[in-house]
Design goal:
Oligomer: heterodimer
Shape of chain B: globular
Strand content of chain B: 15-25%
Strand content of chain A: 15-25%
Number of helices of chain A: 5
Structural class of chain A: alpha+beta
Largest sheet of chain B: 7 strands, mixed
Shape of chain A: globular
Radius of gyration of chain B: 23 Å
Largest interface: A-B, 23 and 25 residues
Largest sheet of chain A: 4 strands, mixed
Distance between the termini of chain B: 53 Å
Strand order of the largest sheet of chain B: 4-10-9-8-7-5-6
Order of helices and strands of chain A: HHEEEHHHE
Number of helices of chain B: 13
Number of strands of chain B: 17
Strand order of the largest sheet of chain A: 3-2-1-4
Distance between the termini of chain A: 19 Å
Chain lengths: 153, 421
């Protein structure tokens, strides 16, 4: 278990220079995620146009893994259809469970190393589970809910 | 009065490597390591005289009962209790506080009454009172914490009212390290007609605690933080209070006569120890007490004060590191919590783990306190008698590794944050 496996250069870069930070108003999806045990807090905003992610922003604070994972996620889902986004959510969660990463995960493949540090997996998946929750809320017209991955170890 | 030089030899767990590096254990505020005599005493109990207490008339049952009650006496003497019957064995501090809330609290607190806590409490000294307040329609109030990490005692004038029934305060903060002036708070509480509960989980393992000198009515403590086994601990209360309290759990062992409609109960402390108790761990807690007394709580406190002063001085030299809590080793224990720039505590602990250093990261079961300081989490290093200056040096070296790894990111983010602001 080398520390380099966890803190890859690209992860530290996303942590230092997070992409798509901020709020989005108006928005079609607004969802919160929190892992209170770690002190990770996240608010995710998505604007949907013609069934695609038109724009996405996030706010919050957390560890390098959760921030980098969120930052990379916003990059990879922008412009994708909601179905494609769901497929990405499943691909990412699959990768964190140990499956071979799908090609379209891009930089997110750098988070594979997190698997060797089981307590950190929930940091990497927080924004993804929040996004999935947001998609569900959007599809069913439910009011926004809050989510966590702290019971998901 | 210095500690024995070879004290670490007593603790088998400390002599291991983690990822090729010698373990530095700095999480004793979470749980302490155990000396060999404690570990051996557990084995001895199970190999030689494991039997249920207070019922068997055979030899080993008598021995188990005698040792169980002997441990109670040792703990009573250790805490300056008036008599052994003032000690109720519990699973630890959490259960002890729940016991007080669920019995004394439930029978004394009514609608509109107030329970006074502080902003620096552990969740185990908040949630039991929230449950009680919700059930009774009572109100929780909190003594604020200053920026330095001390109680804002001036607020007592306005917070202590004729509706205050219970004041429940930590003796020593598990996050800030702050040691609170319990005697003063107790006198004020009593003058207002309230009773005072003291969470002594973090003080009893590290300094001589005398329940009489504290002026408390109830004192809760945990065995596993004082070199004893997990699942051991207890509640001290004045005997007249224990007598006046209704039972906690119902069951065997706590009754005199059981009828179909009602039962009569044993005298304290047995009234509060329903069912087969945690015999082994409670007996061995007495062994841990013997060990602590053998070394001397004065010597332990002095050693930890020296170590804490050293740690504070060295940590404060690390650029970007902020200590949450008093920055001088005065009226303070050896738990030192801190944050670093924008390096998240979880990342700090992860990098330190790679260096073989065990610290805690998170909210340490004190979310309201972290909210008070505007941070979601912190990293915490905490010492016990077996820690050394070398351990502190290793911590500092480890934190410099954290800085090197995240340094660039930290500076970059700082610019972004200040640029945005």
């Amino acid at each position: 278990m080398a520390l380099d496996d966890l803190y890859r250069e690209v992860i530290l870069d996303h942590y230092a220079h997070p992409r798509n930070r901020g709020r989005l108003d108006p928005n079609d999806i607004a969802v919160e995620g929190a892992n209170p045990l770690c002190g990770d807090e996240l608010a995710l905003f998505v604007r949907v146009r013609d069934g695609r992610v038109d724009d996405v922003r996030f706010e919050g604070r957390g560890c390098s893994i959760s921030q980098a994972s969120t930052s990379m996620m916003t990059e990879v889902i922008k412009g994708k259809t909601l179905d494609e986004v769901r497929a990405l959510v499943n691909a990412f969660k699959g990768m964190m469970r140990g499956e071979e990463p799908a090609d379209d995960l891009g930089d997110l493949v750098s988070l594979q190393g997190v698997r060797k540090f089981p307590v950190r997996i929930k940091c990497a998946t927080l924004s993804w589970v929040a996004l999935e929750q947001g998609l569900d809320d959007h599809a069913t017209g439910r009011s926004p809910t809050k989510t966590t991955t702290e019971t998901e170890e | 009065m210095a500690l024995r030089a070879d004290i670490r030899e007593d603790f088998p767990l400390l002599h291991q490597t983690v990822g090729g590096k010698p373990l530095v254990y700095l999480d004793s505020a979470a749980t302490s390591q155990k000396p060999r005599v404690v570990i051996d005493a557990l084995t001895h109990y199970y190999c030689e005289y494991n039997a249920n207490v207070h019922r068997g008339i055979y030899r080993i049952a008598e021995e188990a009962t005698a040792r169980y009650e002997e441990s109670r006496s040792k703990i009573a003497a250790f805490l300056g209790a008036a008599r052994p019957e003032e000690i109720v064995f519990t699973r630890g501090t959490t259960e002890a506080i729940n016991l007080v809330a669920g019995t004394w609290g439930r029978s004394r607190v009514g609608a509109g009454d107030e329970i006074l806590l502080t902003e620096m409490e552990h969740h185990s000294n908040i949630v039991p009172w929230q449950l009680l307040a919700a059930e009774k329609g009572a109100r929780l109030r909190y003594i604020p914490v200053t920026d330095e990490g001390r109680l804002e005692l001036g607020a007592l004038d306005r917070l202590l009212t004729d509706r205050t029934k219970i004041v429940s305060v930590t003796h020593q903060s598990n996050v800030l390290g702050t040691v609170n002036p319990i005697r003063m708070v107790a006198d004020r509480a009593h003058a207002a007609g309230a009773h005072i509960v003291v969470d002594a989980a973090q003080s009893v393992p590290h300094q001589a605690v005398d329940v009489g000198a504290l002026g408390a009515d109830f004192v809760a403590f945990s065995g596993h933080k004082m070199l004893g086994p997990t699942g051991s601990g207890g509640l001290w209360a004045r005997y007249d209070l224990l007598e006046a309290m209704p039972p906690y759990h119902g069951g065997g062992e706590m009754i005199m006569l059981v009828g179909l409609d009602h039962s009569t109960y044993k005298d304290p402390p047995h009234k509060f120890e329903a069912g087969t108790p945690n015999i082994a761990d409670s007996i061995v807690l007495g062994v841990a007490v013997d060990y602590l007394r053998g070394i001397g709580l004065g010597a332990i406190a002095e050693h930890e004060r020296d170590l804490t002063a050293y740690a504070l001085a060295r940590l404060l030299q690390i650029p970007g590191l902020t200590i949450i809590g008093p920055k001088e080793a005065v009226d303070r224990g050896g738990a030192v919590s801190f944050t670093m720039d924008v390096v998240h505590p979880h990342d700090i602990a992860q990098v330190l783990d790679q260096e073989g250093i065990a610290v805690r990261a998170g909210h340490h079961c004190a979310q309201p306190l972290h909210r008070r300081f505007g941070i979601p989490a912190s990293a915490r290093a905490s010492v016990h008698l077996y820690n050394t200056r070398e351990d502190v040096d290793r911590l500092v070296e480890g934190l410099l590794v954290v800085r090197r790894l995240f340094g660039r990111s930290a500076y970059a983010m700082k610019e972004e944050v200040s640029g945005a602001g």
